[in-house]
Amino acid sequence: MISVEGVSKTFPGGVRALKGVTLSVGLQEVVCLVGPSGSGKSTLLRCVNALERVDEGVITVDGIRLDHDAKNLHQVRSEVGMVFQSFNLFPHLTALGNLSLPQKVVRRRSASEAEEVGRALLKRVGLADKENAYPAELSGGQKQRVAIARALAMNPRIMLFDEPTSALDPEMIKEVLEVMRDLAREGMTMMVATHEMGFAREVARRVAFMDQGEVLEVAPPEQFFGRPSSPRAQAFLERLL
Amino acid sequence: MYQWTWSQIPQYFPLFLAAAGRTLLISGWSILGGTALGVVVGLLRVMPSRAARTVAGIYVETMRNVPLMLILYMVYFGLGYIVQLPPLWAGVVSLSVFEAAYVAEILRAGLESIEKGQGEAAQALGMTWTQTMRHILLPQTFRRILPPLTGQFVSLIKDSSLASLVSYQELMLVGRQVNSAIFRPFEVFLTIGLLYFILCFGLSLYSRHLEKGLMRRDQR
Fold first, then answer.
1. Is B40 in CB contact (< 8 Å) with chain A?
2. Is residue B1, in this structure, part of any structural domain at all?
3. Count of domains in chain B?
4. Which of B49, B116, B123, B125 to mutate to test the interface with A (most CBs of A within 10 A)?
5. Parallel, antiparallel, or unpaired for β A30-34 and A189-193?
6. What is the CATH classification number for the domain harbouring B163?
7. pLDDT of residue A171
């Protein structure tokens, strides 16, 4: 579903965020990206839906090669849902408005269809009673669940999660992970940058360890957490435990 | 010493009110024109296309660095060789192109003050640049820039007094004419000043009311 081959990215200012990254994510596979802050996890995710341009290498998403032809970019992005660390809900719209507006604008659905889809998804993430609430009236965990529902409303074939629980209070992390776990169980193809090792261990089919812009190790979770092969991954895991 | 004599003022009230009406007319049209053009220029200022940004940048800097009076003379006298605009429309065109530069800058600053994640979230959902602007960024920006925009419109109302220079019968010119008839400068110009104050302060109050209404609706 996602193939990243030899991708490099240098930010203006000279920071080399990605150095020849190669990684693939299969249909219905969940791959967790772990590694220290600044290791390139977010940049990699942002490249996969072309929020960042790559300098070198090729990314193919669902058979579409991202080559910055504006037309296929919008197509790819509407197939790929993205959840951000900082939620990025639209503050001028209600929870339901956040879900229905993109459907109307991008998918050209009618208002009633968009709202129907929106209500069903709010119910699915346990927020049926919050459809008229504005983002400012929601807790962090509720915001992130609305954000996940908003992405799902577009019927994406792939979901990207960029540290979805890092901005949350501990007691709210669970409710968000629960929604993500359900999604994985239903067979969604997912790429998740996370610091939640418990989640990675339980849900990921494979874990990719990143450090300083490189993918150093890709392994099933039991292998990665049990006996990581690279010294830097060993050091990283030791620091966590 | 100055002898205050207010008794001669009331007979000119109808004249003053009509003049205030014309000040309102020229300002109203200029606010519309300046906002419309300003939004276009402001959007060009933030477009992905570098050429568009440059053109809009040159426009803004040009307008901000020449006197409004010069623009007014160019439109009324210079443009007069091609098409002679009546004083009202010469004033509206000058004020609009002048204020548009300021409106554009207010809009650009407002757009840039919206968190980067808003645009990214919209793009990640598959929205085009235009859709992102229209549905996500502009609605949030307009709420935010209402106060500075109001300040700009208030200064536009005051700037409209320059239209007296091309003989548009607005408040300032009528004031001057009445004063040359009765030689009561303080009484005349205080009256004129009060009328300007009512127009400008009224606009500020209305905008504050609008702002409160938006905030209540948003509950932000």
1. no
2. no
3. 1
4. B125
5. parallel
6. 1.10.3720.10
7. 87
